Amino acid sequence: MTSYVDQWRADGTPAARVLWDMVDGPMPRGLLGVGDPDVHYIDGRWTMFLGGFSTGFRNRLYCATLAEGTDPGGRWQIDVDDRGRAAALAADPPRGGWDGAGMHTPSYVPPSGGNGPRLYYTGRATRKHYGPGSQYAIGFLEYRDGRWQRHHAPVLQGAPPRSSVLEPFVVYTEGRYRMWYQANPHEIGPGELPDYELRCTESVDGITGWSPPRTFADSSEGFFDNALARGGEGWVMILARGSDLHATPGLPTQGLWWITAPRPSADRRDWSRPRRLLDTDAPGTPVWMARGTYGPALAFADPTGTKATVHFTATRSTPRWPRLVLRHLLQLRRPPVPAPFYLGVAGIEVDLRDDSSH
After folding, report:
1. Where are the domains of the chain?
2. For a tag site, which of 3, 9, 82, 219 has the least CB within 10 Å?
3. Is 324 helix (H, G, I), strand (E, B) or coil?
4. Cross-referenced InterPro entries, in alphabetical order (predicted)?
5. Which of 99, 110, 198, 215 is nearest to 152 (CA)?
6. Nearest Cα to 229, choosing from 75, 76, 38?
7. How far is 69 from 75, CA to CA, in rounded Å?
8. pLDDT tens-place string over residues 48-105
9. Residues 6+ apart with CB under 8 A from 81
10. Cα distance between residue 321 and residue 47, in whole Å
């Protein structure tokens, strides 16, 4: 997919708003990093679910909201506990559990099929975050009795040669839970090139009886994850590459793409061709997202319109930690914590008008 003028630049590069950033801040108290936004309109206000890395070195799920009447491009506030620190949505899973090493990438589904609200997520079983030996599966929380409660077992697991499944995005449609997700051999580490396959499956109860998965995007396209929402005269899907977390030579071009369809179909043939929404390899890309974006969230303040807010996880182009520390000290600024890469959450405004044919 050759780079060209993307939709964001065609719209005149409307101001990109950085919500949270590991290097320049702000960062909520109690968190070292945050990412994977998932945005929905719930009970009269915009709500964002997130994955975060706590100062206690645990990957947990969190929630942020906007004031009532504020559009999704507004100022977000993470829910906090009595001490003013970011409040996790649920208790930590048991050590040694299928998700005992961390909870990532939330995907909210409103009450559906006689069930309460759910938050599907990726669970990590291994201490390793990436590289051979890392392993991920997909499960969910359900809101019952006034709190988010963890389902005891994963609902979807990988199988060789794609032993990890992650990055769920779930909608309830046509009487079924329909899930898009990524399957890979393992999360890529330094020096590795991506081998991502986006798949789609569905289940009546969202727990068991998942249909044989359909390939939605094969590894040649390089898409890492997706998000979709009703907008305009149909549905819009955002597709993201996985970002260049480890500064690996030869990685495919990075950024976001978008496609449209009359309904949220599991069949790729029902969707339009991909169009470039955001090209993070283009000259002039802000440094805080210059190594790519992933974990998109899509929100239409007016679901009948085409103007959307797209939030995402941004990967900063930055030197290694010792040089970064020196730079901050010379500028009399507090240095960031040591990390293999530096992430942020940001949003852009775009007009996703559908002027293509399917």
Report:
1. 7-351
2. 82
3. helix
4. Glyco_hydro_beta-prop_sf
5. 99
6. 38
7. 12
8. 999 999 999 999 999 999 988 888 988 999 999 999 999 999 999 999 999 999 999 9
9. 87
10. 33
